[in-house]
Structure formats: C-alpha cells, structure tokens
Amino acid sequence: MKSSLIGTITRLGGVNQVSPLGRFRGAVIIMNKNFLALCCCFLIINITFGLKPEKKYAYHPKDFELVSETKYLTTSDSLQIIAWHIPAIAEQKKNISIIISNSDAGNMSSWLAVVPGFVHAGFDVWLYDYRGFGESSDFSINSNMLYYNEFITDLSAVVNAVKSSEPKNKICLFGFSMGTIVNTLYLFQNKNDIDFYIGDGQVYSPSLVTDRLNKTGKTVLIPDSLIQDWDKFYKGIKIPVLLFCASNDIVCTKDDVAKLQEEVKNIKIVPFEGGHLQGMYILQESYFQNIEYFLAKK
After folding, report:
1. Closest of 164, 186, 183 to residue 174, by C-alpha
2. Residue 71 to residue 153: CA distance in whole angstroms
3. Sign of the CA dihedral running 37, 116, 113, 4
4. Which of 37, 137, 263, 290 is least enclosed, having the fewest CB within 10 Å?
C-alpha cells in the first residue's frame, strides 16, 4: 500500500528541516536526522516518571508555520483547559481528529515537533494541557505523583470540544507514557465512544509500573485507581488499538505486551529495539507509516 503522507518543511531557528513524516510516495524517503533528533529530544526530556509541569511555552504553533486556534475549554468541575487546534491541510483532509495526551513533564509545546507531518497528511490535531500545566488552570501538584484522576476530566473537555466543532470527524486518542494512563482511564469511563487508540510507552497498570519504579529508588505515588480489574477492562476494549513497544522499557515490558495481545481483541503491536519513547527516532518513517495505515482501517 502506498502512503499518502506528504513531507513538509518546517522552520525552526531559521533552519529548514524536513518534518518527521518525510516524503513518501512509494519512493525512497529522505529523512533529516537532525529534525528526528530534535523530536526525540522533545520526548526524552519528558521522561521523568513524576509530574514536572512547566507554565511557559517554549514554542508556539507559528514557530512551525502551523495555522492554529487556541481553545479555552471549561471542565465539568469548572476549571479552564487550554488547547491548540491545528487543522488538517484542506486538500489532504481525512476527517480524523488526533488528540495528543502528553507525558508527565513540560507542556503541550514540547510536542509541537510531531504535529506538522500529521496535519499535512490530512489529520486534525488537538494538543492540550492538563490542569497545572502550561496556561491551563492552576492545580496543586505533588511531583512524586505519576498522574491525577482529574486529568481524565481535562481530556473529557477536549473530547467534547472535538465532537462539537468537528462532528463528522472520527477521533483518535494518542497517548505518550503518562498520557496513556489518562487515555486508558478515559476509555474505562466512556467505554468505546472513541474510534481509535494509539499508545507509545503504554502503561499496562499504574500500580504495577509504580512498584517497578519504586524498586529503582524512585518515590512514585498514584491516586486511588478507578479500575480494579485491568485484565477485565482490556478485554472489553472493542476499538482498534495500536501500540509502540520498546524492547528495553520499564514502563511497558515484554510481559505487559504479551498480556495486552491476549486481552485486547483488535490490537496491533509495533515492536522496536530501544527504550521508552524512542520509537519515533528509531523507527523514523516507519513510525508514521504505521499510524497512517492504522487510521485507514476503519
């Protein structure tokens, strides 16, 4: 199958860089490894296994020559969540909205490097900040916490906004590391009202991962779990699931992957040799090809 992904040029610091999607029309893809290293850097600095939010945005969509709209969303508990809606390029539009749930550090600006290729491939992208992150409402955060259940409320506000503003679009939840917990708990609370799920550095069970991390000398805490029986929950997922799983990952181990393959009916695993959240850099164009093919399934 030929990919329809169209490479784009983004400008960062006055230097033209090839976007992570590259150019691919059945021909050889020429990737700019400096840009991929930049993307990888964005991801690696966000691996803290504890909440480290930043209020100031290091980048804005305009720095990547992206058209965007800032959304001020109100949660069910009356807090304000800031989101950036970055629409698909009109001639490529596929009527799919990708909502990116960030990891546990920085803010949504840390993830802008991955956006240009998606919008030029025809996908609408929504970035958002949890409460306590970026310019979203203040929220008291213990840096030893792995996540807060309130983050699911924040994601719900974004999903509602997408459904309201883009009612014809299918929705894909895309989570990185801690963001996979938020997405998974959203699916638990809202069953199968989402069309696709993508996870990179999937947390199989927060309590299991917390035990692993604490054995390394860290102090990681979690709130009361909303899910008591994770096996039963995963077996109930009916939507298509795509997971990127590293060979050397304390968060998503090979045993976790084996369990997920048994429990989730409609799942595709993309394995790679490397560590937590390194798939984008290691797999390069294949990372994004897998996403495009996956989202074309339904």
Report:
1. 183
2. 16
3. negative
4. 37
Q: What pLDDT band is residue 13 in, cutting at 50, 70 and 90? A: very low
Considering only CA atoms, give the Rg of the chain: 18
CA 266 vs CA 67, 118, 188: distances in Å: 34, 23, 16
Q: Which one, of 156, 154, 166, 160, lies nearest residue 125 by Cα?
A: 166
Using CA atoms, how far apart are residues 55 and 5, in angstroms rounded to an integer? Answer: 33
pLDDT tens per residue, range 242-279: 999 999 998 889 899 999 999 999 999 999 999 998 99
Helix or strand holding residue 233 (H, E): helix 230-235
Location of structure tokens 């596929």: 94
pLDDT tens across 69-128, in order?
999 999 999 999 999 999 998 888 999 999 999 999 899 999 998 899 899 889 999 999
Predicted confidence at residue 192, as pLDDT, reads: 73
What local confidence, expressed as pLDDT, does residue 231 receive? 82
The CA distance from 53 to 106, in Å, is 5
pTM for the whole thing? 0.86
CA distance 178 to 206: 9
Joined together, the tokens standing for residue 270 give 């993309």
Helix axes 178-190 and 150-165, enclosed angle (nearest 10) = 70
Pairing outcome for strands 170-176 and 105-106: unpaired
Residue type, 176: F
